[in-house]
Each structure stands twice: as C-alpha cells, then as structure tokens.
Amino acid sequence: MTKLRIHAQPGQLELTVLLPCLNEERTIGACVTEARQAIAELGLAAEVLVADNGSEDDSRQVAQAAGARVVKVAARGYGSALRAGIAAARGRYVVMADADGSYDLGQLLPFLERLRAGDQLVMGDRFRGGIAPGAMPWLHR
Hints:
Distance between the termini: 26 Å
Radius of gyration: 15 Å
CATH topology: Spore Coat Polysaccharide Biosynthesis Protein SpsA, Chain A
Order of helices and strands: EHEHEHEH
C-alpha cells in the first residue's frame, strides 16, 4: 500500500479541490465554477484540479475553460484518478468530490476548518436531507 503525504511548503497553496473525472462534460464546468466561487469567497490560496481518467468527450476542455488545472491519468479507474490527483495536488489539504454535480462544493469551509484543527480525515455526506427518487441505483448506495 502506498502512503500519500502532503506537506506544506512556503508559498504553497492551502487547498486543492480534486475532481476525478470520466466523461463529465455536462457537469464538470459547473462543478469547477462552484468550487472556484467558494474558494474566492473564502479568500483561500487554492486550486481546482481535475484528474481526467481518459474522457472521450470535451471534459478536459470544459474544465480548463472554467479555470481548473487538468492532469491526464493514463491508468484507468476511479482509484487511479484519485491517487494521481493527490500526487499532482499543490495544496496542503485535498478535498475530493465527484465531478457529476452531486456534491455541494460551496461547503468547503467546514471541511477545511476540521483539517486546520488537525483532523487527518474529514468525510461529508451528500445524502444529508435525503436523496431524490431515481438519483442513484440501490447498488451504489
């Protein structure tokens, strides 16, 4: 098992919002924009990083146009995209979310506050308040 460590460097970004991506051209732009807006409102030194896992649509171009840094990940699979994204992250902390619009990327502060307090892992719940009928197959819950 490989341990991924993120160490703060002088002048380094505090946060990387990591969005692993595979064929998400319909949603990636809005996700990047939402994350960048939250970063700006909080006054953070941060980046939005898209780890593209071989998209065959315009996901990369849409993400870049919205202001994300994009890294191409040759190894297929969600885990590979996460590992490569974490390795490429420039932030001291990494917050990751799917690029399909299922997460509220405007809610970065509660995660960042816990990370700043020393927590090594902070997890959110995108189902808080319920899930719309048909939004996710039972096998994926």
